[in-house]
Amino acid sequence: AAHVVPNWTATGFGLCPQCGPPELLATLQQSVIQEGLRHYDSTTVSVPNEIPWHGVELEHRDFTDGPVPALFVHRPELVERVLRELQPLVEAWVQRPIQAQQAYGFRIYQAHSKLYMHLDKSQTHVLSVIFHLDHSIDAAPWPLVMEDLHGQTHHVYMAPGDLLFYESSKLLHGRPQPLNGSWYSSVY
C-alpha cells in the first residue's frame, strides 16, 4: 500500500475522544447494540468457522479469530447515515475533501474474539474511522494495536463516542489479544 497510496497525515492515525455525533451515537447504541444482541441470529452475517478461507470471498471474510466470531449487524440505512455524518470529520482530519466509498458496518465482538493484524483494501479503505459505540460493563480495556507510518507500535484504547481516524490500507492493525468481557461494539 505504501507504493500505491500516498501518506495523508504525519503519523497515519489520530484519536478524537468523544468526537462522535451524540445523536448518532444514541441511535446506534439503541438500534445496533440492543437489537443486535437480542436478535443476532436473524440480523447478522458471519462466516462459519468450518468454511475454508479459500472458499470465502474477501468481502465476506471477517478476519476474526477465537471461539466465537464477531457478529455483523446488517443495517444498510444506518451505515449510510454513518458515512454521511462522519465524512466531514474525516475531511477535517486530513484537511481536504474526500469521497466516502464504503463502510464495513457494525460489529459486535463477543467474549474471546480477536481480530487478525491486517491492512484494509486500498481500493476502498484508504482513510478509515472507527466509531466506538459501547462495550459490556464486564469488558476489560481492549486495545486496537496498530503500527504507525514510522513503524512505531501503538495500543489505542477507546471509550464510547470516541473516533479513531487512520490510514487503514497502510497501517497494520488488529486486536490480537482476546476480548476479556461479554461484548464490544464499533462501526467501521
General description of the model:
The radius of gyration is 16 Å and the shape is globular. Residues 40-62 have low confidence and may be disordered. The chain starts with 12 loop residues before the first strand and ends with a strand. Strands 1-9-6-11-4-3 form a six-stranded antiparallel beta sheet. It has a single domain, classed as q2cbj1_9rhob like domain (Jelly Rolls), CATH 2.60.120. By secondary structure, the chain is of the alpha+beta class. It has two helices and eleven strands; from the N terminus they run βαββαββββββββ. The chain is 22% helix and 25% strand.
Topology of helices and strands:
Blueprint: E1 13-16, H1 22-43, E2 64-65, E3 71-73, H2 76-94, E4 106-110, E5 114-118, E6 128-135, E7 144-147, E8 153-156, E9 163-166, E10 173-175, E11 183-187
Antiparallel strand pairs: 1-9, 2-5, 3-4, 4-11, 5-10, 6-9, 6-11, 7-8, 7-10
Provide a quick synopsis of the model.
This protein is of the alpha+beta class and 188 residues long. The protein contains two helices and eleven strands. Strands 1-9-6-11-4-3 form a six-stranded antiparallel sheet.
List keywords for this structure.
Jelly Rolls, 2 helices, 188 residues, 11 strands, globular, 5-stranded antiparallel beta sheet, alpha+beta
Instruction: Return residue spans where pLDDT drops below 50 for at least 5 consecutive residues.
Output: 40-62
Average pLDDT metric = 81
CATH class group: Mainly Beta
Span between termini: 19 Å
Lateral arrangement of strands in the main beta sheet: 1-9-6-11-4-3
Do you know the CATH topology? Jelly Rolls
How many whole angstroms does the radius of gyration measure? 16 Å
Return the domain count: 1
Under CATH, the homologous superfamily reads q2cbj1_9rhob like domain
Total of helices: 2
Work out the strand percent: 25-35%
Overall number of strands = 11
SSE string, helices as H and strands as E: EHEEHEEEEEEEE
Q: What is the SS-derived class?
A: alpha+beta
